[in-house]
Amino acid sequence: STGEEIAQVGTISANGERAIGDMTMALSLAAACRRHLPDARIACVMREALLPFFKSCPDLDAIYPIPRRFFLRPVAAFRLWRALRRGWDAAIALDTPRKSSLTTLCFGLVARTRRRAGFATEESRGFLTDAVLAPPNEPMRASLQRLAACLLPKATAARPLPLPRLAPDAAARAAAERLLGPEMPPVVIFVSEHWSKSWPLAAWRRVAARLTETGHRVWLAFGPGDARDGDPALHAWVEKSRGLGAVLPAQPPSVWLAILARCRLYLSNDCGPYHLAVAAGARCVGVFSTPEALRDFGYEAPGRLVALHEPDLATAEARAVETALKLLESG
Fold first, then answer.
1. Which of 73, 191, 230, 311 has the most crowded Cβ, counting Cβ within 10 A?
2. How does strand 62-66 pair with strand 90-93?
3. Are 183 and 217 in contact (CB under 8 A)?
4. What is d(CA 228, CA 235) in angstroms, rounded to the nearest whole number?
């Protein structure tokens, strides 16, 4: 073929929020490949459950979904194998370091790739033609940067990785506009229930109340099954906000992305929707109570993305409100 072909093979094990966040960060590598190889064919293999979130990525030419219970569905497995049987130049695995080499070898052989790149351990790096040994505490974007250096020229790989990009389609944007209405777009706060990163709902409700008291429209959003329709304090906040506060009903992934692209500001801790908001182009305030969460944040966009590390909850609330108000007042 004319130009180099790269198959980005994402083999993330989980189907939950962590998989969404990791996969979104991995799209930075696709963006780097697109920046250097504008005529290349770049594809991604990912779990079927993640497809609705990432089908709108402008840096991917194709997505090959891995069906649920892949090894128990021979017909679906054969279709995927047949779709991948083309002469890719490289397969890139984006799984955990301990699993990556095996999955890259598997997909690399299926796709007949000449180069197999991914994260590996000392014991398993022999399976790869381009192995990155990722230290346990290294930020994921730093590991992706070193993975890019294996496959792209040094002049390109030395540049910071681009931010991931997701672009909602016209139907999703129209649905979002109907929900948003003619008023000023809202501040969106996502209440994560991840056990190691979550704030209590009361903390986010207090942040939301401070913002509505200053005249800003605020929507609280929850993950699937986490909506608090029966929470009296949440109802009291909505009633007291004089029409400025609301709880966002569950939305399809494409519409959710379109809302993130249009919101005035997005706030949450480190969770899948945070990374989606970054990719959708939203201004974001991330509030991280642990060094691990801040380490995984890793994005750099001064003036648009602000990361706060504050283990004390009361101080974190005050800093979140102060930072949000500064960004809102700046335009």
1. 191
2. unpaired
3. yes
4. 9
Rounded to 10°, the helix 74-84/97-110 angle is 80
Report the candidate in 10, 6, 67 with the shortest Cα–Cα distance to residue 40.
6
C-beta separation of 141 from 117 below 8 A: no
Domain identity same for 123 and 225: no
**Radius of gyration (Cα) for the chain, nearest Å?**
21
Each residue's pLDDT tens digit, 88-122: 777 777 665 545 555 655 666 666 677 777 777 66
Structure tokens at 34: 């697109």
Q: Report yes or no: 218 and 290 within 8 Å, Cβ to Cβ.
A: no
Angle at 328 between CA 326 and CA 329, to 5 degrees: 65
Q: Does 164 fall in a domain?
A: no
Q: Which of these three, 130, 157, 184, is where a domain ends?
A: 157
This prediction's pTM: 0.86
- Is 162 among the domain residues? no
Q: Tokens at residue 273, please?
A: 């929707």
Q: Is residue 227 part of a domain?
A: yes
Which DSSP helix (H) or strand (E) runs through 131? strand 130-132
193-210 pLDDT per residue, tens? 654 556 788 889 999 999
Domain, as residue range, for 308: 170-329
Q: What CATH number did the domain enclosing 226 receive?
A: 3.40.50.2000
- Residue 278 and residue 24 in contact, taking contact as beta carbons nearer than 8 Å: yes
Query: What is the rounded (10 degree) CA torsion for 67, 73, 79, 85?
Result: 90
Are residues 244 and 135 part of one domain? Answer: no
Within 10 angstroms of residue 59's Cβ, the number of other Cβ atoms is: 21
Number of structural domains found in the chain: 2
Find, among 84, 87, 92, 83, the residue nearest to 33 by Cα.
92
The C-alpha atoms of residue 262 and residue 267 are separated, in whole angstroms, by 14
Average pLDDT, the chain: 80
Q: Are residues 12 and 95 in the same domain?
A: yes
| 200 and 315 together in one domain | yes
Domain assignment present for residue 163? The answer is no
